[in-house]
């Protein structure tokens, strides 16, 4: 693979602005024999199909809300496709329009983190990623796009982005806000025995009071077991497990604290581990199992907070919430 990896942002004011950047990007990929994927809302697909004409048959279209379903899973799936194509001597070329509306602040923050870490995860794959951002999005979302993409596309010209941040520095900034204290009524269990059987039983009893749905209970048990095991192996007592329901974003929250200062190195399980290479498989797996994972370490110890989104009443999805760009606990 001789092509360099690129990750560019396409800010646009209207459809003419959007097409001026998107069409050359897509046509170049079609002409080069790349695997060309477009992730966009239905209206964007109709617009691009009309503009591309017969060439649209060489493009794979996916709806944004399906593609951008879970930060870690999307990152893992997309990286796997890029690596597989690189082994075949081909390139992944993806035009994506992230789904920002209807997300709560914590979700927005995690997707922004992924936008930054893409620059680390995809290094060496030769993939070409172009992320479209309408200027009408919340100002914080637009501003963050210039900090997470090395280049900005204007028409068919790629310009270095002076506001671009080191991905790990950006990720650390996402975690700068302290976590809110657990509510007074949180269920609490000191963990002082090496046998985790009773810990899992306690988690099951607490979880049965909320509608996790599907395989939620199994995912919860696996994630909690992994985090508690890590605390017992690498942390210091006291180790305390707490659980509560957070009505603000309809989540079941499980928190593990210990008195040690956890130092996971450069990557705290945020990048999909490469086969045969180093990586935080356990913590990465936990991130895949949970809706959101928050980690804080200071002089008082380490806190790992796991959040599991609960289904809305009636079995549907959680109600949409306006998206903002804030660091929140």
TrEMBL record:
Residues 310-329 are annotated as: Disordered. Residues 6-150 form the MEDS domain. Residues 192-308 form the Histidine kinase/HSP90-like ATPase domain. Coiled coil: none annotated. Keywords: Kinase, Serine/threonine-protein kinase, Transferase. It holds the Pfam family HATPase_c_2. InterPro entries: Anti-sigma-factor_SerPK, HATPase_C_sf, HATPase_dom, MEDS_domain, RsbA-like_anti_sig. The keyword tRNA-binding does not apply. PANTHER family: ANTI-SIGMA-F FACTOR RSBW (PTHR35526:SF3), ANTI-SIGMA-F FACTOR RSBW-RELATED (PTHR35526). NCBIfam families: RsbA_anti_sig (NF041045). This is Anti-sigma factor RsbA family regulatory protein. It comes from Actinomadura rugatobispora.
């Amino acid at each position: 693979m001789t092509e360099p990896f690129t990750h560019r942002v396409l800010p646009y004011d209207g459809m003419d602005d959007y097409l001026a950047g998107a069409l050359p990007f897509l046509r170049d990929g079609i002409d080069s024999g790349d695997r060309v994927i477009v992730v966009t809302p239905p209206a964007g697909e109709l617009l691009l199909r009309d503009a591309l004409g017969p060439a649209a048959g060489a493009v794979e279209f996916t709806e944004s809300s399906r593609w951008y379903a879970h930060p870690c899973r999307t990152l893992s799936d997309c990286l796997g496709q890029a690596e597989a194509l690189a082994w075949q001597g081909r390139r992944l070329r993806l035009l994506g329009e992230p789904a920002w509306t209807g997300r709560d602040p914590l979700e927005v923050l995690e997707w922004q983190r992924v936008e930054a870490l893409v620059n680390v995860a995809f290094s060496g794959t030769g993939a070409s990623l172009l992320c479209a951002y309408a200027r009408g999005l919340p100002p914080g979302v637009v501003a963050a796009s210039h900090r997470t993409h090395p280049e900005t596309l204007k028409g068919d010209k790629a310009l270095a982005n002076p506001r671009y941040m080191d991905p790990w520095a950006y990720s650390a900034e996402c975690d700068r806000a302290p976590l809110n204290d657990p509510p007074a009524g949180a269920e609490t269990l000191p963990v002082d025995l090496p046998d985790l059987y009773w810990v899992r039983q306690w988690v099951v009893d607490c979880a049965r009071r909320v509608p996790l749905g599907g395989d939620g209970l199994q995912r919860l048990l696996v994630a909690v077991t992994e985090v508690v095991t890590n605390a017992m192996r690498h942390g210091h007592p006291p180790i305390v497990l707490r659980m509560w329901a957070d009505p603000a974003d309809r989540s079941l929250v499980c928190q593990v604290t210990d008195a040690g200062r956890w130092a996971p190195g450069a990557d705290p399980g945020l990048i999909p581990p490469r086969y045969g290479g180093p990586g935080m498989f356990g913590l990465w797996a936990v991130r895949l199992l949970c809706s959101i994972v928050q980690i804080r370490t200071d002089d008082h110890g380490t806190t790992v907070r796991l959040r599991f989104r609960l289904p809305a009443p009636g079995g549907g999805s959680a109600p949409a919430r306006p998206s903002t760009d804030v660091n929140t606990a």
